Amino acid sequence: MHLSSLSRRNFIARLGVAGGVLLTRPLLAQDPVVDAIGKGGKPVERDKIPWQVRPFPMKQVRLGQGPCHQAMAADSRYLHTLPPDRLLHTFCINAGLPSSAQPLGGWEAPDCELRGHYAGGHYLSAVALMYASSGDEDLKKNGDLVVSELAKCQKSLNAGGYLSAFPIEFFDRLRNRERVWAPFYTIHKIMAGHLDMYLYTGNEQALETVEKMAGWVGDYTGSFSYDHMQRILGTEYGGMGETLANLYAVTGKPYYLHIAKRFDKKWFFDPLAAHRDELKGLHVNTHIPQVIAAARLYELTGERRYRDIAEYFWEEVVSERSYCTGGTSNHESWNTDPGKLAAELSTNTTEDCCAYNMMKLTRHLFGWNPEARYMDYYERLMFNHRLGTINPDDGTMMYYLPLASGYWKTFGKPLDAFWCCTGTGSEEYAKLTDTIYFHDQDSVYVNLYIDSNLEWPEKGLQLKQETKFPEQQATTITVTAANSTQLAINLRVPYWAQGGSVRVNGTALPVFSSPSSYLMLHRQWKAGDKIELSVPMSLHVEAMPDEASIQAMMYGPLVLAGRFDRVSKEMLYGDTEPKATDEYKVPDIQVDPARPTAWVEPEGRQPLTFRAEGQSQSMTLVPLYQIIDNRYAVYWKMNGKKG
Question: Do residues 520 and 302 make contact, with C-beta atoms less than 8 angstroms apart?
Answer without folding.
Answer: no
